[in-house]
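Worked example 3. Consider a protein that binds zinc ion.
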Amino acid sequence: MDERIVSFSWAREILPGRGLLAYANDSREIVIMSLQFYSREPEPEGSTRERSVWEICELARFDGGGPHKVVDTEDPDFVPDGSGFSLKWSPWHVSPECRTATLAYIANNHVGFRRVSIHGKWDKGQDPTLRVEQTDTTAICMPLGADAFVEWEDAIWPDGDGHMARGIIATPFVPKPFQVDVCGAPSRPMASHSAGQCSSVYARDDEASTNPITGIIVHHPDPNNKSPAPEYSLVRLSATATNQDWYQTNVSEHDVALPQWAEYVRRHSTRLVPRLAAMEGLESDSDSEDLDDEFTEDEVPMSQVHPHRFRFWGLASSPGDGCTAVLVTQHNTQHPHRRPRSKILFGRRDPTKETTPGKQTGVAKKLTTEGRLWEAYYGNQWDVSDAVLTGTADSLVHQSPLRDLFKDVTAQQRCVYCESRLSISSQESNCENGHSFATCAATGLPIMAPGASRLCAVCGLRCLKGSELSTIAKKYIGLDAVVDLAGDVCGGCGGKFVS
Ligand SMILES: [Zn+2]
Ligand SMILES: [Zn+2]
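Given these inputs, the predicted complex is written out as structure tokens:
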């Protein structure tokens, strides 16, 4: 592959161990690849262990250059375009026959929306039947600067026969809402033209800004209460004492409190101290107030300065919207040559704050166990008492294909020490002579060897390793027994294993 990747985006979740990604290269082509991780059946004469393999494969490639004629870099109207974030996948619309999404891509003063669909089932180890349309569903010419990007709302809204997905384009100075029918038919391709012909070279005067948006989060919508436009919060690059636009949101103050990080940045960027103190570097990062007292006692009025300004480099939210985080650098205004420190600052939902009655906050869709755990501990929402170990939860009542597969094997198990019968409960298996073993939370089998299991970090239960399960399956069920470790998650709570 003789190409350079300039932009990259993961498609939203598809199936365990299977995903799609898109990248753009330096010749303005957009490439869609599939990526899989699965266990290949061993060769008959080979080792008994299955081999886990990663497989990546190019599925489609299309021109992402947009309709505008290339302008020479010497031309006064030349504007650089694109960034590492100029591709973004919409959420999937899933129907029984296929799943469909739209890939938004940014070209020179142009945003294209290309429909991508997967037809039929995607079996492990096979390539999916992918269809990428020849032309865009919708395309918009608009003035875009370098580092323009797109963010999608995580929802599909039925609208007549259509399935609308919405989002925000950051130009990057102005947030512009858009909506696209993810299942809409492709439209005729836009003829090649110069950006002057569609007036997308220069932004309107009222959109002139010099503080680009560096991060947007589109909040999870209330599915029963569609807002007129996607609700978002954004940060801009520069935060000083003289500008206020570095944090903006279109959510009503009722529903979203000022995040703690915004409070921190506001306090530190608007703080005034005597110039001398700032010059001497006495003004440290601490919030010490004694400095001010010390110097205000002075008879001579001294000029005052704001010792700090900030730069925002990114904004993100947790899966359930309960927590936000920003990456910032804090700069010293009096000693600009000093290297700024990078920090990640967090904000979390205030549990005591009342929201607009009837308005649902957070996400409607099911989060992963880790996502729920994060929200419970750091986002102040929901609880995970059913997931974390309570001592009373009986994981044996859960039905799963894996548990059904090993149902008969469990009864045949004997104690490794004394060969006696085992009585198996949800967390522990005991033999008649008092030997005890942990019980695998995924299958209900007793774990009778060291190193054969993994400990779940969420609920504290043990699960047998996949390789161990196939050995047991071959021994008790038959050589052709297939252990489908879909997702390979903890049987107790659904948590994932890292290794
Ligand atoms: Zn145009
Ligand atoms: Zn678990």
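Take a moment to read the result before moving on. Confidence is low (pLDDT under 50) at residues 286-293, 390-396. The chain has three domains: 1-200, 209-284+302-384, 395-476.
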